[in-house]
Amino acid sequence: MEIYKGKSAFPGIAAGKILFFAREEYEIRWHSIKDVHKELDSFEKAKKDVADLLLKLLAEAEGKPASVSKNYKAQLDVLMDHSYSDAICGMIENQAVSAGYAIQTTRDELIYTFQNLEAPVIRERIRHIREISFKLIRALGTSSAQIVLGEEPVILIAEELNPAEILEIEKNNILAVVTSHGSEISHSSIMTRTMNIPSLFNINVDKDWDGKTAIVDGYTGTLYLNPSDEQLKEYELRRQEDLREREELMKLKDSPDITLDGKEVNVYANIGSVDDLSNVDYYGADGVGLMRSEFQYLGKDRSPSENELFREYRKLAEAMKGRNAVVRTIDLGADKKADYMRIPPETNPIMGNRGIRLALDHREVFEEQLRAIYRAGWYGNLSIMFPMISSLEEMDEIDEIISSAKKNLTSRSIPFRDLRRGVMIETPAAVMIAEELAERADFLSIGTNDLTQYTLAMDRQNPSLKDKYNDHHPAVLKMIKMVIEAGHRAGKRVYICGEIAAETSLTETFLRMGVDALSVVPACVLPVRRILRETDLSERAAERI
Ligand code: PEP
Ligand code: MG
């Protein structure tokens, strides 16, 4: 057995086979399917979706250089070419394979056939075959993921994974995630944590591990490669013990979140999409304190439409059954890039065009999202929240765009209601004007992940800073206190929604600062609630400290 020591991004124990993912070399694994007709239908549907998309892109390309529309026309040509579709359908029917696998194999066979032909027209055709196959695989939905896991749950290992890639994985088939790069508060780690998946980073991973067996210990940050049967048995016992401890915590689920001296503090959950809602209920969160809506925009060819967004937010509003859910508007840019937004390369993306700045620059996209959130608010208790605010002028612009979105809905006779608005405090500038911002909002939510990186001037994802990056830095804690006091002076509630909110060693400190709510990944809701109920904030208790 070999032992590799790294860092833990989320605890838990897992053992199983490794799937090594190398970007650009992904492969949809073969597995036999039972329902050939279902697979053929999925292919036809994907084909129609891609054709619709290309027609839409063609319409939008009007007035743009001819090469743009030529490209889309050529892709449509491949899509409508009977020999291409027939080859895929034939393979599904004759070999009982998934549509994704058939597309991938047909693509590879065609490329292999033409690979030695140098004629530019053939080279172009190969390029379009690649592109159209990619679009079809993506349009297939979950089975289209770049990382296709096969039927047996695996430990996913990669040099690094970006948020769009994580979004594509079928979480029920993942036992654990291990990467070389990353950090506790990178968006990729936040996502695996939200999905409840034991995760390690800072391990020197190796492609040759693919298919081997490993144990992941998310408590100690260790990966054991090729463990013996004895060790596997031992870890199975630890895994069972781990599960029992978690079940013990579940007993807290239905009792109220009140400190020993009677103060009620809400514990909300942070989610990436409506897929995480089952965990919100499972762990008994009081609501959703942060939905990172930008994930809906990643891994796509175009930004989602108002209706698509509306359907998601309505699901969220209805599923919460009256509990509050806060939708954060798009926080794209930096490590969350949507290609179709064409963000020019930046020397320092973390300090670049991201969050509200980027949203205000893409007014149409932003307004479309606002319309969708306001519409969905009609069906439940939604709030809206703005990321990366650093000035009051940004609030003026937001107000103006919200008015325009509402006017649009009124003109279409679509019902909506006013929503509570929150401002994220993630920049030192926002800390310094927190009171003025609170006067313009209904609540403040402190995003300590970004606030820490901008306060310490340390990129939250930079692995070489991992031992220096300190989110417990007194400057950060002092800022949190300042913001809570500023918000309260303006008569508004203040939450913390950065990862630090889940740190039980700080729960009492935050409560003593007067925080009104903490929003954490679903699996951390119960540990925080346990501490909260054991805390006494009365003066008598303070004297005892
Ligand atoms: C934060 O910055 O603390 C936050 C909650 O937002 P994100 O982690 O998505 O940047
Ligand atoms: Mg942030």
Average pLDDT reading: 89
Fraction of residues in H or I helices = 40-55%
Q: Give the structural class.
A: alpha/beta
User: How many strands?
Assistant: 16
With strands numbered from the N-terminus, the spatial order across the biggest sheet is 1-8-7-3-4-5-6-2
Shape: globular
CATH class of the largest domain: Alpha Beta
What is the third-level CATH name, the topology of the largest domain? TIM Barrel
Radius of gyration: 25 Å
Oligomer: single chain
Instruction: Point out poorly predicted stretches.
Output: none
> Into how many domains do the coordinates divide?
3
End-to-end separation in angstroms reads 47 Å
Task: Give the biggest sheet.
Answer: 8 strands, mixed
Query: If helices are DSSP runs of H or I spanning 4 or more residues, what is the number of helices?
Result: 20
CATH evolutionary superfamily of the largest domain: Phosphoenolpyruvate-binding domains
